[in-house]
Amino acid sequence: MPPILEVQNLVKNYGNFNAVKGISFDIKQGEIFSLLGPNGAGKTTTISMLSTLYTPTSGDAVICGHSVVKEPMAVKQCIGVVPQDLALYEDLTARENLNFWGQMYGLSGKTLSKRVDEVLEQIGLVDRAKQRVKTYSGGMKRRVNIGVGLLHRPQLLFMDEPTVGIDPQSRRAILDSVKELNRQGMTVLYTTHYMEEAQELSNRVGIIDHGELIALGTQAELTKSVGETDTLTLHISEEEDPETLAAEIRKVKGVVRADVTDHEVTIITPSAEELLAPVVTKSNELGIKIRSVDIREPNLEAVFLHLTGRALRD
Amino acid sequence: MRKLFLIALKDLKLAFRDRAALTLMLLAPFALTIGMGLITGRFSGNTNTGLSDIPLVLVNEDGGSLGNALVEMMQSKDLESLLEPQVMTDLPAAYALVDEDKTAAVIYIPAGFSDSVIPASGQSTPEEPVQIELYLNPTRPNSVGVIKTILEQFMSQVEVGRIGGQVVVTQLLTSGAIDISQAEAVGRSMGEKQANEAGQSSSIKLNRVTNSGEEVKFDILAYLAPGMALMFLMFTVSYGGRSMLVEQAAGTLPRMLTSPTTTAQVLGGKVFGIFLTGAAQMLILIFGTTLLFRLDWGAPFAVFVLVLAAALGATGWGIFLTALLKTPGQASAIGSAVMLIFGILGGSFINVEMMPDWIQFISRITPNRWGLDGFTTLALGGGFANILTPIIGLLAMAAILFVISVVIFSRRGIGRL
Amino acid sequence: MRKIFAIFWKDTFVRFTSPLEWLFFIILPIFFTVILGAGTGPSDDQRVKLYVVDLAKTSLSENLFSSLTESNSVHPVLIELNVAVSEFDERKVSTVLIIPTTFSQENVINNRAELELRQQPNNMNALIAQQAVQAVLSRVSSAVDIANASVAKAESIEGFSFTSNDARQVYYNQALEQAQTLMNEAPVRMTEVEADTADPVSYDPRANSSAGQLITWVFIPLIGLSAMFAFERQKGTLRRLLTTPTSKAVFLGGTIFGQVVTALVQMLALVLFGIYVMKLNWGHSLAALAAMLVSSALAAAALGTMLGTFVKTEGQANGLSIMLGMVMAMMGGCWYPIELFPQTVRVIVKALPTSWAMQGMLDIVLRGQGLSGVWLEALVLLGFALVFFVIGIIRFKYE
């Protein structure tokens, strides 16, 4: 079966600024693919090109067998988009919003009202469908926002950071609904800068940074690329100088690399347990007080750190 | 095409759900129309604007045929709607009315006026002619002007009568057609005939052609109400234009473009939505003022067409402003400013014809001016054929602004800021 | 006091971050003042416009036109036929006088001269124009009328007839000559006495416009104070501000103080524009001016504060402030002289602060009065301010 989405060397420049520097990947039918990267990495620009909103400077993407450049209309018919903003009319009710957007996707008559009912059921807003969206809580608005993207039963759903700025409970609900949609056969392209979300949801992950796709694969493949390594993080107090500590630690045997982020020194090593003692000794020698220590098994965070030398957090 | 309508209807619905917008769309023009109606006296029937029912006092001490003829003329049916004459006998009381600004003028016909013009039999023409006195109120120059014109016309007729009689008699005598014993009778009959025929015997024939159309009494509200409606139409279109910037910022516009909807459909839908909202607003205001104030806007079909043209012209401005501006905040502020500027330039507050020529020239860029021209024509009984100029003006305005806007939009795109 | 200044600076800063604010602050008021000042006042020329189309272009037709220009009731405008007809059809002009090519002295003598007067139906102005035209016509044609009547009378006498056409013409010419001589010798039979009526409307479009627009454009943003409360309430900054040790009174005081100071700056700018550009007499009594400016600003700010407790959203408040501001300005006589209003309305509008403000401002700029002339108006405005403030403070809520 051909991939439902195939990105070929996609580039987007704004004047001299290269927002997306030629990325390529594909998404298979039925998988959840996450684009993971910090803010400003080019995730939204990429998804905007894939949803035909921006014209690529060069390169192309084929979605459901149609080129986003040459056949944008056919592509739009096939995709559903859940934008980062709450792109809804707050003065219309949930039902009216769904009706309007459904019509924008070419639905009408019985099909439309049936789908609106189904989606309202799906997002759990049947009771409040007749109230204006502006009276809803943040989480409810998000659900309507997602519902709009589902109306026309798209084959491929783009979700652009749908969990930004909401409470943990609503976030949980959204992640569950993404999984549920996927279980029902929906292919999802999910962008996020939360490592945990990518880890929980995705079959495959693409890591994007500064407009470049720096890693691509299943989680297992990615963590493997870092090697059988652990991540050891030392939190030191604000008055101390982490650079000095990191420089000394790099000299310790068994340290693959040591990087500084704020008041933390992150060390990658084949075995954290063995390294713990020498590192603590080192800091004592330097008179630097360690406030706490974290040891983590290989994860996407480590992959990002390994590739960029920076933590994923913004 | 269907999507274009859907987007437009959605905008219409949103506009009528926005209470803040409704305040300015419907409430404000009503409030201002009522205010204007109040201060111009439209609702109290005591109007100070326009010349009609000019009050004047006649004091006739003459008792002769000419004095009576003058009083009769002033009270005649022809001048009924123009003058409001009152006959008094107490001259000082009449003067007092003028001094107190209760009336525009006193016409005092002293005793012996008729005899002074055409001497009674056996008398000779007095040395000093007896003069009619016009005691006028200087604070009402226009009313006085009208009274003076009428009085002058009468006096000139009197003079023509007198001289006519004299000439006829002299001529007839010299030619020998009559003898001296007949002279006086001929002269008197000629003179009185001339004087009584006031103005109708001129050798220059004045053919009066009355314009077709219904007879209408001009209602000051027929000028004020469309003025206000058109001013707040500008608010509505700038509000509509603003909604486009709001949708860009809120992400619903880009979202529409991710659905199988073309840029042209989205833009067309927004434009059509602005147009529909504007037209709906105008029609509601027209309907409302017709019901509430018994205001006759004129021929319904022509009014309807003019509403559509005005809404289209104004929509042109709305979309043009949107094309130039970037944020909803800018659109609100500039929109209000343009509304007020167009309001005053277009004649919503003061009649543009009283303004200097250059302002009159600039006022042509406003849909208010064209629209008001048209609505006034219709309210005065004009028909569809008479408002072609304003309609063409408005359509041309719309076309020019649409073309410019589309060019700007095609350069900057509507999908993002 | 420090807090009040802090609130003042914050408000001023927030307000003027947008360059567009200057548009409403100073540019539009000046624009409106100039435009309205340029317009002629209502007591000016109200003569009825009469379009005259001169197709004849003879000395007679020119004579007719110049006689019309001397009329007190019409304002004749010489114009092309097609323009006149189209504007007449569009109801822009009530009356059109068309002088056809056949209009000549010769045809007047032959009794064949005709003019066409087109009138709108049942139109007062058309009636006035008709009267004026007839008055002028009878003057222009009177001698000819008499000569014609003379010939007619002679022919109507039994047993008399002209021996030839020439004899008839001679008879006519003599009559015409005699009539013209007599017309020229005609005595004046009318005198005009101008009464000493006091003019109730003291009006100078420039002074009225300057004072009226000053009030309009200060009232609108001050009533818009309500929008500011709504804005802060919506954003939650009001709530937050009140979690700081700041009392309700200090907050309200600071906000209002700031707005009043800003309004005073705005009014001063407009007054200076009036003095230096429009050459108006604003500055003769600084005490009176200060009393009026401060009391007007306070009354308007208090009104805004009160409204701020009633409206819910910023949008509502904005719409309301423009609408109320304009209606109140108009009813208060800021746009049209209040003396032109019907008597009852003139009494009713005394309930509006704008009418008192306008009256006081006109006392200064138009009637040249000092503090003794405006103290009542200033006091009434302060009274308005007090009432509005009290209602505002009682009703004031945080969210």
Helices of chain B, by number, come to 15
Q: Which geometry of chain B do the CA atoms define?
A: elongated
Please give the number of β-strands of chain B: 5
Task: Tell me roughly what share of residues is in helical segments of chain B.
Answer: 55-70%
**Helices and strands of chain B: which structural class?**
alpha/beta
Helix content of chain A: 25-40%
Question: Could you characterize what this model shows?
Answer:
The complex is a heterotrimer of chains A (314), B (417) and C (399). By secondary structure, chain A is α/β, with parallel strands linked by helices. Chain A contains eleven helices and 14 strands. In chain A, helix 8 packs across helix 11. Chain B has a four-stranded mixed beta sheet, with helices on both faces. Chain B is built from 15 helices and five strands. Chain C is of the alpha/beta class. Helices cover 66% and strands 7% of the residues of chain C. In chain C, strands 2-1-3-4 form a four-stranded mixed beta sheet, with helices on both faces. The longest helix of chain C is centred in the middle third of the chain and has 33 residues. Chain C is elongated and about 120 Å long. Chain C starts with a helix and ends with a helix. Classes of the chains: A alpha/beta (314), B alpha/beta (417), C alpha/beta (399). At the B-C interface, helix 2, helix 4, helix 5, strand 4 and helix 6 of B face helix 2, helix 4, strand 4, helix 6 and helix 7 of C.
